[in-house]
Fold these 2 entries.
Entry 1:
Amino acid sequence: MSIVIEKAVEQLSEKLPNGFSSTAKFIIEGEGSIIADPDGVREGDDDAEVTLTADTDTFRGMLSGDVNPTMAFMQGKLKIDGSMGLAMQLGAALS
């Protein structure tokens, strides 16, 4: 597991202490992917109801609160595939 993925799993686990009600995948370009589901947050590449893709800087910014997920999406820095409703729930949890 890359250091970036390891740190992202740790930070996402803090923001989603009870996991996520559905299955979401976060793809960090060039690093790997993370799954958040009712079992918690972990490295993985499972199928998901929503997939969020961003580069390392954008993802770090969203986790730290320096990057607004909605603005990142509108600027094309965050790509969403799947349920927009679930993506909005994740955005609220990350903010």
Entry 2:
Amino acid sequence: MTATPPFRIMLTMRIHPGREAEFERTWLNIGDVVTSHPANLGQWLVRSEEESSTYYIVSDWADEAQFREFERSERHLKHRQALHPLRASGSMVTGSVLTHLVGAAAPVPAVG
């Protein structure tokens, strides 16, 4: 049986200048709204090195259907409402992870 590849969400968020630290704190404080969902595989917050007010948020999901269910949920609406005042603009792209190549410097998982 072949496992379903993770469904990946990639957001670009531009934050109002001067509110970057507030955005980072808020994102971290409410992050469990996403990661506590049973279909969420994890999420990452990345700050652009080129544009200090630009962030990339990546989250992986068990499949698209469960992500879309979360996207329409009341808990997601509250999550978005907390971040919306900090956001100047944003965009989202989605896709299915086709493969993952592990790099030489990646930690070896503990067996046990």
